[in-house]
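Encode chain A's predicted structure.
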Amino acid sequence: MKGSILYDGERTHLIVLNMTNIENFSFDESELAGILAHEMGHFFNDSPKHEMPSILKGNNLTEINEAKAEAAKQLEIYADYFSKITSTKTGLLSTINKYLATEDAVNRDMFIERIEALNSGVVYQGSIKPIEKY
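Encoded structure for chain A:
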């Protein structure tokens, strides 16, 4: 998903699907529903915001990078949870597993944590991101 981008000279929210990946992985209808629910989750189940470390606050680069990685993972986990509450979790899990089965899969640890979060009983209730014209 690409959020809050310039399109036709105006800022907008946009969900972009990679048709090449859809074809290469042969995603079926339930998997596409899981993907779309996840992408919609970035808008309708936004993760809580936390204060980020910075050099100005006395944090080092390692602390800053770890906080950024954790925030990125939380964004994905909260978006994934939207697939759970919209009953499309099975399709999303299937797409993640197809991706992890490839040799080119990166961020394996993060994807494994996302699977664990989806299969857990933890509630990742976020907030609705304001959708507005900028």
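The radius of gyration is 16 Å.
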